[in-house]
Amino acid sequence: MDVTLRVQRFDPEAADPKSYWEDFQVAIEDNGTVLDALIKVREDTDGTFSLRCSCRSSICGSCAMRINGHAGLACKMQASKVMEDGVITVEPMGNMPVIKDLVVDFDLFWDKIMAVEPYLKHEGPEPEAEYIASNEAMLHLSGVTACIMCGACVSDCTVMEVDPSFLGPAALAKAYRFTADPRDGDENGLSKDRLEELTKPSGMWDCTRCLECVAVCPKGVAPMDRIMALRDQAMEAGFHDTIGARHTEAFSDSLEHSGWLDELRLVPKSLGMTNISALAGYAPIAIQALTHGKMPPIIHKKIEKAENVRKIFDKVQGPEQR
Ligand code: FES
């Protein structure tokens, strides 16, 4: 099978180091992977072409790169299935500096993983014998422990693209691996210190739920779902006094009581009514909305049949919880 690889290349030692595109024609087996094709380029055409790979079995995570615009493992993608008119576009992962061709610098990735203290931290008295964890708890964790640290989720995280300080999907999923572990935290398995740390700016509340990390994760870890579970844990642990928590509560209250979003009050309720400096930062947006006729109504009326929306809340939360 003939394949055209359109590869983004970069040589830091070139006289004018700029990234550029180069096409390679290669012949591979019909069931060959994108990685097979890339290795063929390196072996037969250009020995300077740089990429990382090791296991070729979707285990080590080292061959992650962007294929046709989305991150994934080159060794997991069959070339025939991702070709578009005979062409496969390959780029280095995003949100990490390129070292050479498809090789990126993982320092930022590992710094964030280390920032969440990726090891069990037991608080309180030591158990007399071994730590006991139920089968159910361990089975629940098996989804998130499937992470192979390939960086695909970080590559395509749309928040990290604009805010590199965001802990990101890989580190937050790793944090959940510990907050959901009954051996972490106090004798009831509550990891209060961790959760408090993760509620700070750049943590769990900065995810915008774009779903990219869920779509590209080659192991089904679904990092965004873990971030949402972290938020639930934080709220249950009593961390309500954060912008993210207030935003969620204001959003939900508004829908529950009127059937639609009260956009006018959402910002002050999220930031805090007395947070004058933060509120002042939104003044230009409010003025723009006003001058363009986009200001939400001051009196927020219920929609017709708002009780139908309330019924959804009843169904999800149970009327006794409200
Ligand atoms: S080479 Fe190990 S995951 Fe692809």
Note down, in words, how this protein is organized.
- The radius of gyration is 24 Å and the shape is globular.
- It has 322 residues and is of the alpha+beta class.
- It folds into 3 domains: 2-104, Ubiquitin-like (UB roll), CATH 3.10.20.30; 107-236, Alpha-helical ferredoxin (Fumarate Reductase Iron-sulfur Protein, Chain B, domain 2), CATH 1.10.1060; 243-321, no CATH class.
- The termini are far apart.
- It has helices spanning 34-45, 79-82, 107-115, 135-145, 152-155, 158-162, 168-179, 192-198, 212-216, 223-236, 243-258, 263-271, 276-281, 283-291, 306-317, and strands spanning 2-9, 20-27, 64-67, 70-73, 87-91, 98-100, 103-104.
- α3 (107-115) packs parallel to α7, α11 runs antiparallel to α12 and α11 (243-258) packs across α15.
- The strands form 2 sheets. It has a 5-stranded mixed β-sheet. A two-stranded antiparallel sheet has the order 6-7.
- Bound molecules: FE2/S2 (inorganic) cluster.
Secondary structure elements and pairings:
Layout: E1 2-9, E2 20-27, H1 34-45, E3 64-67, E4 70-73, H2 79-82, E5 87-91, E6 98-100, E7 103-104, H3 107-115, H4 135-145, H5 152-155, H6 158-162, H7 168-179, H8 192-198, H9 212-216, H10 223-236, H11 243-258, H12 263-271, H13 276-281, H14 283-291, H15 306-317
Helix pairs in contact: 3-7, 7-10, 11-12, 11-15
The structure holds FE2/S2 (inorganic) cluster.
